[in-house]
Amino acid sequence: MKLKIALLAGDGIGPEVIDQAVKVSDAIAKKFDHQIEWMPALTGAVAIDAVGEPYPDSTHEVCLASDAVLFGAIGHPRFDNDPSAKVRPEQGLLKMRQKLGLFANVRPTFTFPSLIDKSPLKRERIEGTDLVFLRELTGGIYFGERGRKDDGNTAFDTCTYTRSEIQRLAKKGFELAMTRSKKLCCVDKANVLESSRLWRETVQLMEKDYPEVEVAYEFVDAVAMRLVQWPNSYDVLITENLFGDILTDEASVISGSMGLMPSASVGSKIGLFEPIHGSFPQATGKDIANPLATVLSAAMMFEMAFGLHEEGALIRKIVDQSLEEGIVTEDLVEGNDKAYKTSEVGDYLASQIK
Ligand code: IPM
Ligand code: MN
What we know:
The protein is an alpha/beta fold. It has 2 domains: 1-103 and 259-354, Isopropylmalate Dehydrogenase, CATH 3.40.718; 120-255, Isopropylmalate Dehydrogenase, CATH 3.40.718.
């Protein structure tokens, strides 16, 4: 099969972790006789430096010409403490999500048997955790009207949702629940927010179309608590943009390292696959970042963008094997065990695929 993949390495550790996903994908292509055409393009702070904007039209063209986008990370500390910055790397990612129509962000959280004791949470709490967040990605407070008034002394951000935006996300949630344990949790703040009440009302009306799915409605603050208390009681969770942003960072800790969790953003023809971690500026260029979240994002890409399930499963199997063998980066190393470099982990994974 011919696979056209836009390669957006981005900022910070992005290029380093992307390199490993490319090695692994190339090894998969060789083994299964696929032809990958990698189509590199600029995004983030590197794009601001090169052409003055974080998601230039030229990059959008490359994405549109591809079948899937593999993305590294975005963000640079020089923008973080400068509230007056006019352009920010993160705007590139938001613009890309919006322009590509990626309204649903699929963020799984699962545990690896060999890493259970690396999690800051107790084994008995997290064993068996296998949940998926479906985070709405192109609406809510991220894209609402915002600004300043009173000579700059008052600031506002608005959270707006339309019924159809909620329906299309919830539909994916119900469908996903049908392929899993038929349990769906709608996360909102309907005791306070009107937009949340519309979420709840909309999802309630959809229940009759999926009689087999058992739906629970929970407030976001309670979910934040139960997620670390009883993560294995959840299966599919649907929520709005900002709640999903926060809860999925929280959930990633369950697996033992933020460097492990992949994600997919879908909605239109072209999907975007990226690790959920950020650009990790402190580690940039040191060849120490954990590449597994990006490698597992590539696995999701093979499966979801191309329907290549055997390929995705093999990547997952090799990743499990690297964890069992202790071929891991320093975030997963304990005591005097050896820490492998980012590139060494990538080399190992690729060599095992052959
Ligand atoms: C994420 C990130 C982004 C978000 C940032 C970089 C804009 O935190 O993908 O979760 O807030 O959505
Ligand atoms: Mn985030």
